Amino acid sequence: MQEKELEIAGGSLHYEIRDGKIAVTGLGGGASQVSVPERIENLPVEIIHKRAFLSKKNLRKVILPDTIREVGDWAFAYCDSLREIALPRSSISFGRSAFLECGNLKEISPRGAGREISLLLAAAVTSLEAYYLLDISEAGSGEWLDKWDQKLFSLLYSPDAEGYAKQVLCGEEDYGSTDFEAFLREKRKKKVRLCTLRLLCPTGLSDERREKLERYLAEHTKGCESDETWQVVLLEHGNDREYYSLFAQLGCLTEENFQAVVADIGEDKPEMKAYFMRWKEEKLGYGDFFEGLEL
Fold this sequence. Notes:
Elements: E1 4-8, E2 11-18, E3 21-29, E4 33-35, E5 39-40, E6 43-48, E7 61-63, E8 70-71, E9 84-87, E10 93-94, E11 107-110, H1 115-126, H2 142-156, H3 164-170, H4 180-200, H5 207-218, H6 228-236, H7 241-249, H8 258-265, H9 270-283, H10 289-293
Parallel strand pairs: 3-6, 4-7, 6-8, 7-9, 8-10, 9-11
Antiparallel strand pairs: 1-2, 2-3, 5-6
InterPro entries: LRR_5 (IPR026906), LRR_dom_sf (IPR032675)
Protein name: Leucine-rich repeat domain-containing protein
C-alpha cells in the first residue's frame, strides 16, 4: 500500500488507506503534542498501526479522535516523555505492549471519564502491568474498579523479593543494579506509589480495602524498619500538597518521627515544612489546623 503524508503542527502524520478507512502508520518531526484528525481524505481515521509512534522521545500528549477503533502492537512503546493520551470512551482494540516502557504516562483519558479514572487507567498499564484493564468502555465501572483493586492487592501481598532472580538471570536493569537491598526498596516504593494513588483516587474503594492500604503506608513511614512511604513523598512529591497532606492525615507523621522528618526536608521544600509545622501545632492543641488551611 502507498504511504502518504499529512502535514500537522510540528510535524507530519504518515498514513495508508485500507478498505475505505485510514491507518496512521508513523509520525514525522519532533512534535510534543499530536492531535490525530477524525478524517483524512474524507475517510475515517480508525487505526493507529503497530509501531506508529514508537520511540518518539519528544511526544508528551496525544489526542485520538472518536473514530479510532484499533491501536496496534507497540504503537506508543518507548515514548519516554508521553504523559497523557486522550481517546474516545468506546470499545478500542489494543495490541501487545502498546505503551511499553512509557514510564511517565500519567493519564489515559477517556473523554468524559474524569481524572481519577484517567490516572487509574494509566497506572494499570505502567505500574500494575495489567493490559486486560485497558478496557476503555468499561473503565470506571464497579466491576472494573474491583478488578483493579484485586490486581493491586495481589501485588501488595506478593513477596518483595519476587522477580529478583529473574532480573539477575536475565540481566534486566530495572533498578539500576543487581543489588538485592536496592531491589527490595524499589519494590516497596512501587507498592507505596500504588497505595497512595488509590487513596487519592478512591472511587469505588471499600472501607476494608482503604484501611489495608492506609496500614501499609503507615507501616513504611519514617522511623519504621523501612521508610519507603516517606521517601516517595519527600523525593517524588515534596511539592505536591495532596501527597504530603495525605501522609500527615494517615498518621504517617508522628510525634516520634516528627523531628527526623523535618530534618530530612531541610530548606528545599518550605511549603511542606510549614504544613507539617502547623500540623504539629494542631496536634499539640494550638488551634484548628485543618480549618486554618482552608482560610
